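Service request form, structural biology core

Requester: graduate student, group of Dr. S.
Request type: structure prediction, single chain
Budget code: on file
Notes: please return the result as structure tokens.

Sequence provided:
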Amino acid sequence: MEPYVLGVDSGGTKCLIRAVRPDGTFLAEYSGETSRHHGLEEAEVVRRIERTVDACLAQFGGKREACLAVAAGVSGIDSDEDAAIVDRIYHSLEGFSCPIRCLNDAELTHYAVTGGVGVLVISGTGSIAYGKNAAGESARVGGWVFTIMSDEGSGSYISRQALHHFSRYLDGCAEETELVRLVKKRVGISTRKELMDLCIQLGTPPWTLPRLSIEVDEAAAAGDPYALAILEDAARCTFRLADILVQKLRLYEEAQFKVGVWGSAIVKSQYHFSEFCRLFHEKYDNVSVVKPQKDAADGACRLALEMIGKQ
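Core staff response, request fulfilled:
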């Protein structure tokens, strides 16, 4: 039986499992349905993970008893109670007698981008920052629901700001610029009634909002002052999230420290990222701002290899 380790990237839209050999070479991967414990019975979560594991192992004839370690980054581990639930779920998987480690997906992406020391800010649908220093001290900030004014600087935050600007245009308080034209085209509305109906129909979860980050980026590239102001504000938000942890963990005392970014709202936004970098380099001369070179599953595999001393 060929030995291997498994890296798991379990988010809100998918559960991706990747298998690699002890020397780190790729064996197989499979992306299955989301396996978050929020909103699902534990038994159903286990069934979903089991199906994804089976599909991954089937690609190379892998046996569960040959697995050396499992590292899983799971979204929604936001408390000790969540951690206990997820740990119970993964340790109930049939046939695995190897070490299994489950951690918040922000911790996993932090490991993937920074190598384990530094700060990572995530700006995707939501926003959160996680950090760890060389002494092993860790902290996180953000990641709360947007109804209490969290998710600042995220894609949903940028989208809400774009819709707010559109409402100001309908009120006659802002001129029709490229941002207004792009929002009109994207959501297909042009009147107060249509905007109100859209917002009522969407309800409260941020993932129901129309994703307008791309439109804001396009308008900013065209020089739209309102779009530029939205992205400058988003960059200040993500900078604050990360800088709180730089201060809390005293990373500025290091000769050099890393701040990583993750999530399409900052990684794929040239203006958001460049403004974020400017704010950090303006405050610190010993900071290195880095983008991800690998995905979260790669970070999970590297962590699993570290668990068996094969990093």
